[in-house]
Amino acid sequence: MEAKSPNESRTTLTDLVLPSETNPLNNLFGGELLARMDRAASIAARRHSRRIVVTASVNHVAFNKAIPLGSVVTVEAAVSRAFKSSMEIFIDVWVEDRESGRRTKANEAIYTFVAVDETGTPIQIPPLEPETDLEKERYEAALRRKQLSLVLAGKMKPKDATELKALFEE
Ligand SMILES: CCCCCCCCCCCCCCCC(=O)SCCNC(=O)CCNC(=O)[C@H](O)C(C)(C)COP(=O)(O)OP(=O)(O)OC[C@H]1O[C@@H](n2cnc3c(N)ncnc32)[C@H](O)[C@@H]1OP(=O)(O)O
Questions:
Q1: Residue 153 placed within a domain
Q2: Fewer CB within 10 Å: N-end or C-end of the chain?
Q3: Is the CB of 153 under 6 A from ligand 1?
């Protein structure tokens, strides 16, 4: 299978924060943001694999800045590494300043999607070839994050998590 670049899966969703999507402090609900990120990530996974995809895990979410009512929010997702059937998707969330139009980073998250066939069985996907320095950095660290996610899910024994163990041996 031919390798693809992160740009081929890059997916950008821009939308407003409406009153029905806010908490009592008039900021965007965390759950609403998780849903927007899942939607963008699923399209990115689908663009990379051209297969049916399912969310296997949410590996990391950081709500670094509250996003107020009326904000224009951009969710940008791209595949950061492809394994055999699973893909790591990196998601960056930006908020646009109403007056200057300047975008600031509000949040980031990492999801894992798996490509499956019509019966739900995992299926092989194309490899990913990172291009920029940031893409290379995210690609390099993805195996470590995959192993951590599998250990936490009880699907890998800690003793087999070679990349994680290497962190503590440096
Ligand atoms: C074209 C452009 C426009 C498109 C425009 C339309 C777009 C339209 C898109 C619609 C897209 C809708 C997207 C809905 C997304 C949901 O919401 S899906 C609903 C929520 N998710 C689910 O229901 C999934 C339920 N879980 C499962 O089906 C199975 O557990 C899974 C995920 C298929 C994995 O099955 P399994 O038996 O564990 O299989 P296994 O072979 O052990 O693992 C498969 C791979 O997953 C990895 N894996 C499994 N668990 C984990 C974990 N916890 N952490 C990390 N990796 C894991 C394994 O390491 C393995 O990786 P590879 O080495 O093969 O790469």
A1: no
A2: C
A3: yes
Q: How far is the CA of 34 from the centre of ligand 1 (A)?
A: 17
pLDDT at 170: 66
Closest CA to 134 of 1, 3, 6: 6
Please write the tens of the pLDDT for every residue from 113-130: 999 999 999 999 999 999
Mean pLDDT of all residues in 66-95: 97
Among residues 48, 53, 49, 43, the alpha carbon closest in space to that of 120 is found at: 53
Which residue's CA is minimally distant from atom 27 of ligand 1?
56
Does the CB atom of residue 83 touch ligand 1 within 6 A? yes
Alpha-carbon span 61 to 30, nearest angstrom: 10
Provide the number of structural domains found in the chain.
1
HSE, side-chain direction, 13 A CA sphere, residue 86? 16
Closest approach atom of ligand 1 to CA 86: 65
120 within ligand 1 shell (Cβ under 6 A): yes
- Would you state the pLDDT for residue 100? 87
In a domain, 166, yes or no: no
Q: What is the pLDDT of residue 86?
A: 98
Report which protein residue has its CA nearest ligand 1's atom 25. 56
